[in-house]
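name: query_chain
kind: protein
chains: 1
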Amino acid sequence: MIRVDALDLPGIRHVFLTREGGVSDGIFASLNCSLGSGDDVGKVEENRRRALAMLGSAMVPLVTCYQVHGAAVAQVTQPWVHADRPRADAMVTRLAGVALGILTADCAPVLIADPAAKIVAAAHAGWRGALSGVLAATVAAMQKEGAMPARMHAAIGPCIGRSSYEVGPEFPAPFLAESPDNAAFFDPAPRRDHFLFDLGGYVRGKLESLGIGRIAVAGGDTAAEPRRFFSCRRSYLAGEKQFGHMLSLICLAA
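structure:
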């Protein structure tokens, strides 16, 4: 598990989980926390229990979303059951004693807190969601609850690294249309007319543009570190049709 100093704040608990420390086996070994991955449901539920224990909040309810690579944000005013989870890619709450969970396997998990306002958020930022504004929407939802960007602490969890993220010739266009400065997040790839994309750098740039007071990066390349992380890209290249997901958690202490 990974914690960052930026979110080591009074009354706030957080953790970025790796794939280590669970009970799943095979391609899901071992801390797969996705109930929709095709893994044994009982093992995933035990993995989620262990994840909450690693957060230090074993008895609190966990809420996750049906993530769709969009920009919708769910306001958490009470816990929901998994079957009723909303279609969204971020959650915001001022409710203590509920863990917000984001599932990833190459996309960037982003955890945000305003300790003064006692508001926390968790966002799933793949390239589609980041480009379509999920982080701006998350910060705006926090502001509606009384948070201020300058007081916010944000952490970007492990995601696919630039050297592992080859994209096609059509990929840079929407980013460059957004801003010519986004060219900084692309390098030439070994294959002609292909590029290497810095997802983590792009996500950080988005947070900086929103005026977030403190930003930290957990580090790690999910596609290049098979012992530590699940990776959609790595599994796809290996011909595997299924793969596990890591869980990233944030919670206001009750």
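note: The longest helix spans residues 41-55.
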